[in-house]
TrEMBL record:
EC code(s) of this entry: 2.4.2.14
Pathway: Purine metabolism; IMP biosynthesis via de novo pathway; N(1)-(5-phospho-D-ribosyl)glycinamide from 5-phospho-alpha-D-ribose 1-diphosphate: step 1/2
Enzyme class of the recorded protein, top EC level: transferase
Keyword Amino-acid biosynthesis part of the UniProt annotation: no
Ranges of residues in domain Glutamine amidotransferase type-2: 1-224
Protein name according to UniProt: Amidophosphoribosyltransferase
Function: Catalyzes the formation of phosphoribosylamine from phosphoribosylpyrophosphate (PRPP) and glutamine.
Binding site for Mg(2+): S287, D349, D350
Recorded catalytic activity of this chain's protein: 5-phospho-beta-D-ribosylamine + L-glutamate + diphosphate = 5-phospho-alpha-D-ribose 1-diphosphate + L-glutamine + H2O
Species this protein is from: Falsigemmobacter intermedius
Length: 465
C-alpha cells in the first residue's frame, strides 16, 4: 500500500490526492483521504479505483477541506481478498474522549489475528476485515491521555511490518516499525510538512526531501514543529529489499541511492554472474527495464524493446485474483515481431513467482520466431511467502518452492534461466561484501526464508519456517 500525509498547507487534501497518485503503483484497488478543518471538523472520502478517477472530482474534493490530511492507496494483502469492501478502505478513523484520530497503515501485522480475537473477546466491535483496524481498537484500550501516546501504546502491541501515518486535529504523525521494513520519508513544503511512502510522492507536490523516518522512529509534527520519539526497543534495521527490486518506483530513492540505480546495478551483476551469447537484451516491461539496461551495458549485447506494454493496464501483480492475473499477460504485453525474428533473445524480468507470466512470455517470443530465449531474473528465486505487506501466494504456489533452477527452466521451457544471487543483489543495493549472514542489512525472507519477524499468526496456522 501507499500512504501520504501533509500539514501546514491550504487545502491539504489536494496535496494528498497528488501524493497518492504518485504512489498509485503501491495499490490500485481503492483509496481514501481523511482531513481536518478547524470549522468543518473531520471529513473523509473512500473510493474504489484509481486516485485520478476519484480524488480529482470537484464534488469529492470540496468535501475535504482543511490544512491537514492523510491518505492511503490500498492493495489487499491482509483482510478480504479480491472483492475489497469499502469498509476495508483506509485511513481508519476513531473518535476518542480527547478527539478524533485517523490512521493509515502500510505493511502487514503478523499478530493481527491473535490481537483481533483478544480485542473482540474484550468487547471491541470491528468494522472491517483489515489487520490495520487493530491499531484503532488498541488505542481505545490505552489509558494514556494523549492520542499520540495511545498510538505508541497500540504500536508496541502489534508485531510485523508497519509504516503508519496518523493525524489528529492538530498533529501529523509518522512511524516506522522497529526494523523499518516498509519505507516512509519526510519532506518540507513551504512552512508545512509532508510524509510519503516514497520520495516520488514528495516530488509531485514540489516538497523538498528532508530525510527518511528512521526504523523505530515516531515523528510528531504540530504547529509547524517536528519532534522525534523512540517508542520501541532498538532493533536491527531490515528494510525490504524487494522495494528495490520491484515494489518502489524507479525514480524514488532510499539511503541516497535511486531505485533505478539499484535495478541497473542488478542487471550489471546479472550479466557478470550469468553471461550468455545473444543478439538482443529485452526487458519484460516495465519492471524489468532498468535491469535490462544494466545487463546490456555490462554485456555489450544491444538493448531493444522487444515487448511492448499496453500503458492502460495495471500491474499484473497487483490484480487480486489468480484468474485476472492469468488473463493479464496478453492484455498487457505484446511482442514486436520484426525485431525478434531469428534472434537469440535475453529477456530480463524482475521476479518469477508462479512462473505463469514467464511461460506465456516465452510462448509469445517463440511465436514471433525467436531463435533462442534466455531468461535473466533480477531477484533470487522467490521461494517463501511475504508476511510483511507484499502479496505473494502461499508457498505451494511458488515455483521456486518446489523446483530447482534447472527444473524451472524446463517447466518454463526456455534455453536458459538464471537468477541473481542473494549476494549479487546485496552488492547491487550497495553492500560491497554482499549479504552478511550474521546481520543482513535487508529483509530478504521471500528469497532466503530468513524471517526477521516471526510470523506469529501463520505459525499458529501451521506454517513451517
Ligand atoms: P508469475 O511468475 O507469478 O507469473 O509473475 C511474475 C511476474 O509478475 C513478475 O514480472 C512480477 O513483476 C509479477 N508478479 C506477478 N504476481 C506477483 C506476486 O504475487 N508477487 C510478486 N512479487 N510479483 C508478482
Ligand atoms: Fe520484502 Fe520479501 Fe521481506 Fe516481504 S519477505 S518484506 S517482499 S524482502
Ligand atoms: Mg513484471
Amino acid at each position: 500500500c501507499g500512504i501520504f500525509g501533509v500539514t501546514g498547507v491550504h487545502d491539504a487534501s489536494n496535496f494528498v490526492a497528488l501524493g497518492l497518485h504518485a504512489l498509485q503503483h503501491r495499490g490500485q484497488e481503492a483509496g481514501g483521504i481523511v482531513c481536518h478543518d478547524p470549522i468543518q471538523g473531520f471529513n473523509s472520502a473512500r473510493r474504489f479505483g484509481y486516485v485520478r478517477d476519484n480524488f480529482t472530482r470537484a464534488d469529492v474534493m470540496k468535501g475535504l477541506p482543511g490544512p491537514i490530511a492523510i491518505g492511503h492507496v490500498r492493495y489487499s494483502t491482509a483482510g478480504s481478498k479480491g472483492a475489497t469492501a469499502i469498509r476495508d478502505v483506509q485511513p481508519f478513523f476513531g473518535e476518542f474522549s480527547m478527539g478524533g484520530c485517523a490512521v493509515a497503515h502500510n505493511g502487514n501485522l503478523t499478530n493481527a489475528a491473535a490481537l483481533r480475537r483478544e480485542l473482540i473477546e474484550r468487547g471491541s466491535i470491528f468494522q472491517s476485515s483489515s489487520d490495520s483496524e487493530c491499531i484503532i481498537h488498541l488505542m481505545a484500550r490505552s489509558i494514556q491521555t494523549t492520542l499520540a501516546e495511545r498510538l505508541k501504546d497500540a504500536l508496541r502491541r502489534v508485531e510485523g511490518a508497519f509504516s503508519v501515518i496518523a493525524m489528529t486535529r492538530t498533529k501529523l504523525i509518522g512511524v516506522r516499525d522497529p526494523m523499518g521494513v516498509r519505507p516512509l520519508v519526510l519532506g518540507r513544503i513551504g512552512e508545512g510538512w509532508a510524509l510519503s511512502s516514497e520520495t516520488c510522492g514528495l516530488d509531485i507536490i514540489g516538497a523538498e526531501f528532508v530525510r527518511e523516518i528512521e526504523p523505530g522512529e515516531m515523528v510528531i509534527i504540530e504547529n509547524g514543529h517536528l519532534k522525534s520519539h523512540r517508542p520501541f526497543a532498538p532493533a536491527p534495521s531490515r528494510f525490504c529489499i524487494f522495494e528495490h527490486v520491484y515494489f518502489s518506483r524507479p525514480d524514488s530513492s532510499y539511503g541516497g541511492r535511486s531505485v533505478y540505480e539499484v535495478r541497473r546495478n542488478i542487471g550489471i551483476e546479472l550479466a557478470k554472474e550469468a553471461p550468455v551469447e545473444a543478439d538482443l537484451v529485452c526487458p519484460v516491461p516495465d519492471s524489468g527495464t532498468p535491469a535490462a539496461i544494466g545487463f546490456s551495458q555490462q554485456s555489450g549485447i544491444p538493448f531493444a524493446l522487444g515487448i511492448t506494454r499496453n500503458q492502460y493496464v495495471g500491474r499484473t501483480f497487483i490484480e487480486p485474483t489468480e484468474q485476472i492475473r492469468n488473463m493479464g499477460v496478453r492484455l498487457k504485453l505484446n511482442v514486436n515481431r520484426s525485431l525478434i525474428k531469428g534472434k537469440r533473445v535475453v529477456l530480463v524480468d524482475d521476479s518469477v513467482v508462479r512462473g505463469t507470466t514467464s511461460r506465456k512470455i516465452k510462448d509469445m517470443i517463440l511465436d514471433a520466431g525467436a531463435a533462442e530465449v534466455h531468461f535473466r531474473i533480477a531477484s533470487p528465486p522467490t521461494a517463501w511467502p511475504c508476511f510483511y505487506g507484499v502479496d505473494t501466494p502461499e508457498r505451494s504456489k511458488l515455483l521456486a518452492a518446489t523446483m530447482s533452477e534447472d527444473e524451472m527452466r524446463d517447466w518454463i521451457g526456455v534455453d536458459s534461466l538464471r537468477f541473481i544471487s542473494l549476494d549479487g543483489l546485496y552488492r547491487a543495493a550497495g553492500e560491497a561484501d554482499g549479504r552478511n549472514p550474521e546481520a543482513p542489512r535487508y529483509c530478504d525472507a521471500c528469497f532466503s526464508g530468513d524471517y526477521p519477524i516471526a510470523p506469529a499468526d501463520k505459525l499458529k496456522e501451521g506454517f513451517e519456517m
